[in-house]
Amino acid sequence: MNSVVNSGAVQSSEVLPLVIGNQPVTVSEWRKVYDPATAELIGLAPISTRVNLDDAVASARAAFQTWSKTSDEERRDACRRMAGVLNDNAAELAELLSREQGKPIAGMNAGFELGGCAAWMGFTADLEMPVKVLQDDDAARVEQHRIPIGVVGSITPWNWPLLIATWHIAPAIRAGNTVVIKPSPHTTLSTLRMVELLAAQLPEGVLNVVSDGEDIGPAMVEHEGIDKIAFTGSTQTGKAIMAAAAPTLKKLTLELGGNDAGIVLPDADPQAIAEGLFWGAFINNGQTCAALKRLYVHDDIYDAVCDALVTVSQNVPMGPGLEEGNLLGPVQNQAQHDVVTRLADAAKQEGARILTGGQAHDLGGLFYPITLIADAHENMACVTQEQFGPLLPIIRYSDVDDAVRQANALDTDLAASVWSTDPAKARGVAERLVAGTVYINKHGEVAPHIPFGGARWSSLGVGFGQEGLEEFTNIKIYNIAK
Ligand code: NAD
Fold first, then answer.
1. d(CA 157, ligand 1 centre) in Å
2. What pLDDT, on a 0 to 100 scale, did the predictor assign at position 15?
């Protein structure tokens, strides 16, 4: 990754274009993109210039003039057509996603991600934006309308790149906005291809895509032609975006990092919950915002839960995404692989017990084994930092108040979970946890009808459901004297 190629060295068949105003736009510099599982060159990702960004914003602004005035039915139909295209092209997109991102096709991976894209798009199509009558009496009639904001700049991460792009595109377009999207430099190709397919279902300029080598995101945040930023990524970048958005006072939705805690109560059944704990932590190799990233287990059943997790981990095949049978792939990129390696090494030095994994994978390259870290404690870096990879610290506790205190001690509270056979006890603990979502006996599920956002530093605003759609609107009041 990251080696730049100039136009002379490129065959047109090797590259995907930007899409601006529904036209393919070529550039003069590309980055080589390698399959993280095999290190095979899979394509070239265009590096946009500021001029490309200005063109994309101008195209979206021009399209906004008409798209914002279309009927609700037209926008709904457009979202339905996009859902259809996502369904019809799921196999092709899933394969490209797998090769670029690393996740296998099967399991809760690339095929599942494409299913989610179509589901979210279809669900958002059917949402309503009714006019609310706030007052209607002898004095006045007051109506509250939801109107589009303008041009939305969408900035996405590399972990669930197509699903998260859909989480931005669907509500933005359904509400009457136009969009310029910029994918992560790690997962450019799959987003370019998806946008190419989606934009063809929309009037010219409603959906545009630019891609970059890390400088276009900041330029979007500062751009005077962009009215709102929808960002999903790390808390650190979210803070930088918030600061940079101040001069143009952009509206922001920021979906940020999570360091989710799970608390296993002493009455839980280790065998019954092991599978749920495992996939709560290791879906997409742990590279998931709302994955379980710190597990607090009561002393009474600590060893039994550790043993059960080790057993599950031994039966989960890891390997190249396109090889049938694999359920986990490599870590997506070198920087993330370095984070995971560093945290595992530090835990070993700090006296934690590695139950499984914790050293280079036999497959080499960007593969890293599932790593379960027992006897972790609250000050270890693998507990305090979001590891975002195949590593889970398991912390022993004997007093549930102390487990709740530790779970609430960090600022990145996207979600949390409580595991117990006693629903009332679990609910009591859930009520004391600071998090956007608290799951009971599961972890990490998201759905288009359930609003999703975090507490404290995990988000600003909310996604999904009616509330998620409203994030992409302004309120306009008509206050009519009688
Ligand atoms: P990241 O913050 O490094 O990058 C995300 C995107 O922001 C990329 O497209 C990047 O090019 C762009 N970017 C980087 N610096 C920027 C700047 N200064 N201004 C504008 N754009 C900039 O995140 P990542 O490594 O791609 O993703 C992993 C993080 O995302 C994790 O922390 C994870 O928890 C979080 N995440 C959150 C959610 C959620 O819904 N809350 C979902 C997925 C991922």
1. 5
2. 79
